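Reviewer 2 asked us to include a model.

Predict the structure of this chain.
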Amino acid sequence: MTPKEYVHGYSERESTRLSDQAGTLKYLLHHDTIFPDGSVVLEAGCGTGAQSAIIAGQNPGCRFVSIDISEQSLEQARERVHRAGLTNVEMLRADIFSLPFPESSFDHVFLCFVLEHLPEPSRALEAVKKVLKPGGTLTCIEGDHGSAFFHPESDDAMKAIRCLVHLQAMAGGDSLIGRRLFPLLNSAGFSDVRVSPRLVYADAGRPAMVEGFTRNTFAAMVEGVRDQALEKGLIDAGTWERGIAALYRASEEDGVFCYTFFRASAIKP
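Predicted model (structure tokens):
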């Protein structure tokens, strides 16, 4: 994946969205992202470091090597881990399809919101498997935009979401990849594959989740591809605006929003 193929772009707004997402979902996604002390962990596709700061912070006895293909993102990631006072993370520019490490270099590999953006996720899994030690583990977390449902219902909102799904597919990715993690990891030759669905549920009784996920993560993510969707003729402006308004409507007092992430773990035989 090259920087231009990241469907969400590299704007300051996108960086803020990723931070909001990471903070809001920290416990849901990472309460069990724990590695034994002394482990060397490869984080492939660290982006702006939103996840890096979380997993490195809760695993102070481990050493992390976090890579990304975008130098712009890595600059933000380095600043983020520095502000967090973390000294157990090394940031490197590298391509997941051409990793600059010897085989069997790492005890664990961590991937979060990476495979969804890659044109060949199976090849990426093969690449990280080579640098993983026998008996080492892989942790992979992905979303699935097809799992979003909300109240009040809106056909226009669903059309807006489908624009994002289509745009990501046009860029070679798959925003529905969460449902495919089990067969992907099995096909890549990993053993003991286990997938845990992580449900986001947001209503007025959970205001932090409403603000952090419904508004600042999901609705903002869909809203961010407006220009691309209109330029490619995937939707008309009126339908788009009604759809985005409906997504934000789900964050109001009587609104509800649900979404499922999938966390997979596996072992290299």
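The chain has a mean pLDDT of 93. The longest strand covers residues 191-203. We have added this to the supplementary material.
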